[in-house]
Amino acid sequence: MRKEYDFSTAKKNPYAAQLKKQVTIRLDEDSINYFKFISEQVGIPYQSLINLYLRDCAASHRKLNLNWK
After folding, report:
1. Is 38 helix (H, G, I), strand (E, B) or coil?
2. Where are the domains of the chain?
């Protein structure tokens, strides 16, 4: 390994903005079990499946229709 490296011509990672950010979210057990069940059928981790679903909602500007009674 070199003692010194020259980073004067280095470029920033163009994918750095696309990295995931860790957050804490509280979900009910039924929702988690649903995504775990679907993830077993599809073959991807349930957290990735939840991320894909949320990304799809954001991309299509899907909004909830909540009616409080």
Report:
1. helix
2. 27-59
